[in-house]
Write a structure and sequence with these properties.
Elements (H helix, E strand, L loop, with lengths): L19 H13 L4 H8 L3 H5 L1
Protein name: HTH psq-type domain-containing protein
Main location: nucleus
Subcellular location: Nucleus
Length: 53
């Protein structure tokens, strides 16, 4: 018998919090090749996996 899923209280759904402007700025920084992807992801608060894709 399947059970009904209940989300735990107090846990928030993670949504993307970066804008297209910050994403474009991160791509511009990647083109310069002065910083690595991990450092850029920390600076612009964008997941590094998103930048690698």
């Amino acid at each position: 018998m399947p059970r009904k899923y209940k989300r735990k209280e107090g846990v928030q759904v993670q949504v993307c919090f970066w804008t297209t402007e910050s994403l474009q700025a991160a791509f511009d920084e990647m083109d310069k090749k002065t910083m690595g992807i991990n450092q850029i992801s920390r600076q612009f608060r964008i997941p590094s996996r998103t930048l690698r894709r």
